Amino acid sequence: MSKSSIKKIDDLGRIVIPKDIRKSLSIKTNDSLEIGVNGNLIQIEKNVSIKNYNDEVIKLANIFSRCGVYMLVSNRDKVIFNNTDININVSELIDLSLIELINKSNDICNNCDIRPIIIDSNVEGIVIVTKSNCNSLVGELFNNLITNKLDITC
Question: Which residues lie below 8 Å from residue 148, measured CB to CB, with a gap of 6+?
Fold first, then answer.
């Protein structure tokens, strides 16, 4: 197990998920978690919509790509779609504010649109659109389609 700690269960059957684990998975107060049993293991996963994030992003990015759109899309950890010449370390960008991300965009690419993908009030990835006459419009459209598909708060 990569990140683990030992916690005691209280009289009501509760445990505390350590702060570093909550932060790394963007688990916030009132987020939904799915709890299940797999053999001898208790599994706790972030809400169901996030499980489909990679698949939905790749499917939509492929559609945009077939229309001649050049984009890079990430999850919180890594780039999951890239038909550009951009090479970034997602972990350095994922926790930046929108202003910081926009300011950093010139270091990443010239005249591109860069924006966070926010699902259920958490940043789950980044989308960068480049080599288009309307980068910001395409970036906004992609972002809205993914958010509307996966965000349970919409």
Answer: 154
Tens-digit pLDDT profile for residues 101-124: 888 888 888 888 888 888 877 788
pLDDT of residue 47: 65
Count of beta carbons in the 10 Å neighbourhood of residue 115: 19
Tell me the torsion sign for CA atoms 136, 49, 68, 104.
positive
Tens digit of each residue's pLDDT (9 = 90 or more) over 5-28: 888 999 999 999 988 888 877 777
Q: Is 8 helix (H, G, I), strand (E, B) or coil?
A: coil
Query: Does the structural domain 1-46 have CATH classification 2.10.260.10?
Result: yes
H or E stretch covering 86: none
Using CB atoms within 10 Å of the CB of residue 50, give its burial: 0 to 12 exposed, 13 to 18 middle, 19+ buried.
buried
Structure tokens, 61: 């990015």
Q: Residue 2: CB partners within 8 Å, gap ≥ 6?
A: none
Residue carrying the six token digits 């202003």: 99
Cβ atoms of 80 and 52 within 8 Å: the answer is no
CA dist., res. 65 & res. 81, Å (int):
10
Q: Determine how many CB atoms are found less than 10 A away from the CB of residue 117.
A: 23
